[in-house]
């Protein structure tokens, strides 16, 4: 091919049957460096055009050759355009050759964790190829169904078409929870790859935290991965259409949350069934002649390597048939183990009583998490009699947590102090301190049981002191307690735990003692350190920051940060 600057060569090629990828070789046969743009496009009915598109810009030196691999779809015409870039001056001569290859598995690209071994047959329909199958799982997919949805007409005049037709929109709401921080993306299996090609006027996905902080909005969210901390999240999906019934039929439209694994999981592939069953040497690279088939055997993952997941989740990745394939085939691994707890059968009265108490504690914790405080206090009034000290501490700890998170906390400060004092009176602090001051025998089983109890006592003790300190700081601002009483609680807490873990109380202590500069320094550092990891903690830091600025009399700064706080922690989500 001969080119001048800005020349475009359009070529149409019918892809042979059985081909799955092609190799394009380009060699410059003229003087001087040249820049070329290569584009390839196939149009497959029902698929987004970007799925079958290839684009590359290259710099070629004289006599230099470069090779590219691109996926192709058999029996579909491909338009291949090659252009010399407009500012790459001088005529040029380019030699272009294409080779087509194909490897096709004849079985489904799916395996269940319950399958011990799954066989797959691979065929070379076009030419002789080297075969070395590899399965790499990179993502965990969790399907979600909507918890609610709203459907109605758009009220703006511009949403009525010239022929009088009304445009309707439907908004779906989803919720999910992350047990640990992760990189995630969202997909709509039915629509995600279709934007301009889809039958709906618009699609938009929005990710936000449980505190209504907007994290991500896009029509193509699957193009990006967003790193988010552990916690509860909600998704909103908006669709529009001129036909009300079309939207109304979408009752359970699924959205998939895809989480990137910390490390890839590879499935082992064997050449024979015997090797797969005995887990001997895995399959080696081999030659597969044109028209022939070869059978391989995939062994399921070791249960300890399979990540625990929620219901209906699966692992997804790629299935590459040899190292020359530009992209692998989508592979799904289902039937993942779900989180479960071992259940012990109660055999006598004491075990039955213990089981009932543990169930009550679990139910009370759920009420606190769901912020159903009225129900919590009705049930928690009847604490079982004759329970152990550790069980009694667990009940009081939940009561303290409920009071501290109550919407009317400012009216329950004295109750918080009373419950905290009750916990402090129940725990023998001298005995607990003496226990942690002794070096234990690692082989002493009785000591390990005692250590578990003592760890619980220490944890509840520290939490009680922390909550008591916060409540007394609030009471100090109201003039109901003395500064010395708050300082006494802070000193006692500092003996039991590192003060750096209770910065909120330290900040309040500094503010109430007039050390505004020290408080401001700690607050700004804490906001920077938290980043986006803990929204409740960040919100408290912002509130303390505004309080310090007001105490210093810096009203302009206080107003600016108060406005910024409203934008950072909105009371409601913006319209979608």
- The tally of beta strands, per DSSP, is 26
What is the alpha-carbon Rg in Å? 32 Å
Give me the oligomer status.
single chain
Helix and strand content put the structural class at: alpha+beta
Euclidean distance between termini CA atoms = 51 Å
Estimate the helix proportion, in percent. Answer: 25-40%
Please give a structural write-up:
- This protein is of the alpha+beta class and 576 residues long.
- It is 32% helix and 30% strand.
- The chain is built from 13 helices and 26 strands.
- The chain has helices at residues 244-248, 273-278, 349-369, 373-380, 389-405, 413-426, 429-436, 445-477, 483-496, 503-512, 516-530, 535-552, 555-568; strands at 2-3, 8-14, 21-28, 34-42, 53-60, 65-71, 77-84, 92-101, 104-105, 110-112, 117-123, 129-131, 134-144, 148-153, 168-178, 182-187, 202-209, 214-218, 226-228, 231-241, 255-267, 269-270, 286-288, 293-299, 314-320, 329-334.
- The strands form 6 sheets. Strands 10-26-25-13-21-16-19 form a 7-stranded mixed sheet, with no helix packed on it. A 5-stranded antiparallel sheet has the order 14-15-20-17-18.
- A hairpin with a 4-residue loop joins β17 (202-209) and β18.
Summarize the structure.
With 576 residues, the protein is of the alpha+beta class. It has helices at 244-248, 273-278, 349-369, 373-380, 389-405, 413-426, 429-436, 445-477, 483-496, 503-512, 516-530, 535-552, 555-568, and strands at residues 2-3, 8-14, 21-28, 34-42, 53-60, 65-71, 77-84, 92-101, 104-105, 110-112, 117-123, 129-131, 134-144, 148-153, 168-178, 182-187, 202-209, 214-218, 226-228, 231-241, 255-267, 269-270, 286-288, 293-299, 314-320, 329-334. The longest helix has 33 residues, at 445-477.
């Amino acid at each position: 091919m001969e080119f001048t600057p800005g020349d475009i060569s359009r070529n149409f090629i019918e892809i042979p049957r059985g081909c799955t990828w092609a190799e394009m070789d380009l060699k410059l046969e003229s003087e001087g460096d040249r820049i070329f743009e290569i584009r390839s496009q196939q149009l497959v009915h029902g698929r987004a055009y970007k799925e079958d598109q290839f684009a590359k810009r290259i710099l070629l030196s004289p006599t230099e050759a470069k090779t590219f691999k691109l996926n192709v779809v058999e029996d579909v015409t491909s338009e291949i355009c090659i252009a010399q870039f407009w500012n790459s001056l001088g005529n040029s001569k380019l030699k272009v050759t294409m080779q087509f290859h194909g490897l096709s598995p004849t079985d489904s690209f799916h395996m269940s964790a319950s399958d011990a071994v799954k066989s797959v047959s691979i065929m070379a329909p076009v030419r002789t190829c080297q075969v070395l199958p590899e399965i790499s799982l990179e993502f965990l997919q969790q399907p979600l169904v909507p918890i609610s949805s709203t459907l109605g007409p758009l009220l703006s005049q511009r949403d009525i078409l010239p022929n009088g037709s009304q445009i309707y929109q439907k908004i779906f709401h989803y919720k999910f929870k992350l047990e640990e921080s992760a990189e995630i993306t969202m997909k709509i299996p039915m629509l995600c790859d279709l934007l301009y090609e889809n039958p709906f006027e618009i699609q938009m996905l929005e990710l936000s935290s449980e505190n209504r902080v907007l994290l991500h909005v896009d029509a193509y969210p699957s193009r990006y991965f967003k790193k988010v901390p552990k916690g509860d999240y909600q998704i909103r999906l908006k669709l529009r259409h001129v036909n009300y019934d079309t939207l109304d039929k979408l009752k359970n439209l699924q959205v998939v949350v895809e989480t990137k694994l910390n490390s890839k999981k590879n499935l082992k592939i064997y050449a024979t069934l015997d090797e797969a069953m005995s887990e001997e040497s895995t399959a080696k690279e081999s030659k597969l002649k044109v028209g022939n088939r070869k059978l391989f055997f995939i062994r399921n993952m070791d249960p300890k390597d399979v990540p625990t997941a929620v219901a209906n989740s699966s692992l997804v990745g790629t299935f590459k048939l040899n190292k020359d394939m530009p992209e692998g085939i989508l592979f799904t691994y289902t039937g993942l183990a779900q989180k479960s707890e071992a259940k012990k059968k109660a055999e006598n009265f004491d075990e039955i009583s213990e089981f009932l108490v543990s169930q009550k504690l679990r139910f009370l914790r759920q009420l606190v998490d769901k912020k159903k405080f009225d129900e919590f206090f009705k049930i928690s009034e009847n604490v079982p009699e004759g329970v152990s000290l550790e069980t009694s501490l667990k009940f009081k700890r939940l009561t303290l947590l409920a009071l501290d998170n109550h919407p009317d906390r400012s009216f329950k400060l004295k109750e918080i102090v009373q419950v905290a004092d009750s916990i402090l009176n129940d725990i023998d602090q001298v005995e607990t301190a003496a226990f942690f001051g002794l070096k234990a025998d690692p082989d002493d089983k009785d000591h390990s049981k005692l250590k578990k109890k003592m760890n619980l006592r220490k944890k509840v003790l520290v939490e009680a002191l922390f909550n008591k300190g916060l409540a007394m700081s609030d009471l100090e601002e109201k003039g109901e307690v003395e500064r010395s009483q708050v300082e006494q609680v802070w000193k006692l807490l500092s003996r039991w735990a590192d003060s750096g873990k209770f910065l909120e109380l330290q900040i309040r202590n500094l503010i109430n003692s007039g050390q505004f500069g020290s408080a401001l320094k700690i607050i700004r550092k804490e906001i920077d350190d938290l980043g986006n990891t803990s929204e409740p903690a960040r919100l408290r830091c912002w509130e303390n920051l505004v309080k310090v600025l007001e105490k210093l009399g810096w009203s302009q700064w206080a107003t600016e940060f108060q406005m910024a706080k409203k934008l950072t922690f909105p009371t409601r989500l913006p319209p979608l």
